Amino acid sequence: MLELHRNDPDTRLQITTSTDPIDFRTGDLDAGIRHGPTGNLNNATQILFNPLLVPVCSPSLLPAGQRWSHLSELNAHPILHSLAGPKMWGTWLEGAGLSVAALGETTFLSTSSLTVEAAAAGAGVAIAHLQLVENDVISGRLVIPWDLAVRDHHPYYLIWSSLIDTNPALLKFRRWLAREAQATDRQMMQLLKDRQITEVRSTSR
């Protein structure tokens, strides 16, 4: 965001988080970011990136330099599910050639961020979008215990009302966000290479 502010200091961003459906009719929002189907055909959309799904856990659960390769190793720990992303584990397991029905003890939390925090605290193994936990992985707060990342079929979208499609400030924001998304994806590919993690693409719809 520093780059956006330097290039356009007159643009002001107010960022909020919510899992509620995006409704531009209230006049409170100019744009939103959502993962998966956008729902409202009257809104304009722009694909940002398709996230990479990876299991993550605390380093305390994984001996240094080791990775798991059997479901029994994963099932030795509680599996942390996000109610906001109920299909994430299934998508990754399908990409890994495993069955979601074979997962062991599960704990359900309301959001993906809560599952990630629980994983970092050693409470189990979460599934996460690598783009959103990159800093935690690089810092060592989280580790990726399996050498497989699954590219989610469903992308993250930028959504805005088609009524303000030509708004100059929105156009600048869209261009900046597209550049940031592309740069982040390049960083993810380098991170996978550095950690010797293989990427496969999901076929789930």
From TrEMBL:
Pfam families: LysR_substrate
Domain LysR substrate-binding: 3-181
Example GO biological process: DNA-templated transcription
GO molecular function: DNA-binding transcription factor activity; sequence-specific DNA binding
Similarity-based family: Belongs to the LysR transcriptional regulatory family.
Protein name: LysR substrate-binding domain-containing protein
Annotated organism of origin: Sphingobium cupriresistens LL01
